[in-house]
């Protein structure tokens, strides 16, 4: 269990997940210490550069245009605004900025050109740059790589089996194809999922099978606890117990020993003691700042105080991988080619998503 494997089965992962807690923690902490400094945690800042109005129907997401939530939408941020936010994040201890746009997929044009300039700008600040922009093609991934992108986030969300109960506007295979397109560039992969959406334990294991059998495995895996937002189809979901998060983090660490396991959404519901257990189990990355795109997150000062109490140090930028080079637009070999990829629209109906949509129309 100490080396990277790509042939994990669901049964094997379930056996690990269901180990007695103390045995599970011992195994995961041992593997974590072999591959990582247990006293270093990467601190990232997640910045919503374009909020709301997304055409997708993800059952957990308050940015879906079809649901009625209190999210204030905004157009794409300016490069200068993003630079100011990145400098503020760096001053507060973040080594990575992850920019998220509520798009179904990347489209060539002025907005994507603007994002590329944001990537160039932040990379020149000696910070790791991550983007989560929806589905993208190989050519678009190459353009991001040339701009200096460090990582691309594209979560699987859940298992392939349960995926159709969460999202009907895109297919699980689209997720895998996007990750494959990223892999063809020099950009690292960040991909994880959400627990607490009504899935079975088999679905949690299935998601980890899908991630762990990728070769290479993702360099970063976010583990999110569902934040049930009023107006979304999952607004009535009960918060998951902290023990589920600890088990999920520990299992992820065991099956993906070299990956940075990111403790992501849902931290506002976790005590410091619960988060400390997650760090012990193998989490070594968090998002800092008062929001994760649109949902609440602990204040950065609270996080720094927690780090002080636990003796943790923020990981410096580019400790795991070298800093990418930035090519200016005129130097780039890859140009916009006006692609119109046919991403899937499965078209099946998810009852709770439809009910939330009808509720939004009548409110």
List the helices and strands and how they pair.
Elements: H1 10-17, H2 21-35, E1 40-50, H3 79-91, E2 96-101, H4 110-123, E3 128-132, H5 138-147, E4 151-153, H6 160-163, H7 172-183, E5 188-190, E6 193-195, H8 201-212, E7 220-225, H9 242-255, E8 260-263, H10 272-281, E9 283-288, E10 291-292, E11 295-296, H11 300-310, E12 313-314, H12 351-362
Parallel strand pairs: 1-2, 1-9, 1-12, 2-3, 3-4, 4-5, 6-7, 7-8, 8-9
Antiparallel strand pairs: 10-11
Could you say which structural class the secondary elements and strand pairing correspond to?
A: alpha/beta
Percent in strands: 5-15%
Q: Largest sheet, described in full?
A: 10 strands, parallel
| Element order: H for helix, E for strand | HHEHEHEHEHHEEHEHEHEEEHEH
Relative helix content: 25-40%
Q: Radius of gyration from the CA trace? A: 19 Å
Shape: globular
Distance between the termini: 52 Å
Count of alpha/pi helices: 12
- Average pLDDT figure: 92
- By DSSP, the count of extended strands is 12
Low-confidence stretches: none
Keywords:
363 residues, alpha/beta, 10-stranded parallel β-sheet, two-stranded antiparallel ribbon
């Amino acid at each position: 269990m100490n080396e990277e494997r790509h042939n994990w089965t669901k049964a094997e992962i379930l056996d690990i997940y269901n180990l007695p807690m103390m045995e599970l923690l011992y195994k995961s902490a041992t593997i974590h210490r072999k591959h990582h400094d247990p006293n270093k945690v990467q601190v990232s800042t997640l910045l919503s550069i374009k909020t709301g109005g997304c055409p997708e129907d993800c059952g957990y997401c308050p940015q879906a245009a079809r649901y009625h939530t209190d999210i204030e939408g905004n157009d794409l941020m300016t490069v200068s605004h993003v630079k100011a936010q990145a400098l503020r994040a760096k001053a507060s201890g973040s080594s990575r900025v992850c920019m998220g746009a509520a798009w179904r997929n990347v489209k060539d044009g002025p907005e994507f050109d603007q994002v590329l300039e944001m990537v160039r700008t932040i990379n020149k600040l000696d910070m790791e740059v991550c983007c989560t922009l929806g589905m993208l093609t190989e050519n678009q991934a190459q353009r991001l790589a040339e701009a200096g992108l460090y990582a691309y986030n594209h979560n699987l969300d859940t298992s392939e089996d349960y995926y159709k109960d969460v999202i009907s506007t895109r297919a699980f295979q689209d997720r895998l194809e996007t990750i494959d397109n990223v892999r063809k560039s020099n950009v690292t992969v960040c991909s994880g999922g959400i627990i607490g959406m009504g899935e079975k334990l088999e679905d949690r294991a299935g998601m980890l099978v899908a991630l762990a059998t990728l070769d290479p495995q993702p360099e970063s895996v976010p583990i999110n606890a569902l934040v049930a937002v009023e107006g979304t189809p999952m607004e009535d979901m009960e918060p998951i117990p902290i023990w589920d998060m600890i088990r999920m983090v520990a299992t992820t660490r065991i099956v993906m020993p070299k990956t940075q396991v990111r403790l992501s959404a849902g931290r506002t519901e976790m005590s410091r003691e619960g988060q400390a257990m997650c760090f012990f189990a193998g989490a070594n990355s968090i998002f800092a700042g008062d929001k994760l795109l649109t949902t609440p997150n602990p204040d950065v000062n609270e996080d720094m105080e927690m780090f002080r109490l636990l003796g943790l140090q923020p990981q410096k930028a580019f400790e795991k991988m070298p800093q990418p080079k930035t090519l200016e637009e005129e130097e780039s070999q890859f140009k916009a080619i006006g692609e119109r990829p046919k991403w899937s629209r499965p078209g099946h109906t998810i009852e709770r998503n439809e009910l939330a949509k009808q509720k939004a129309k009548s409110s």
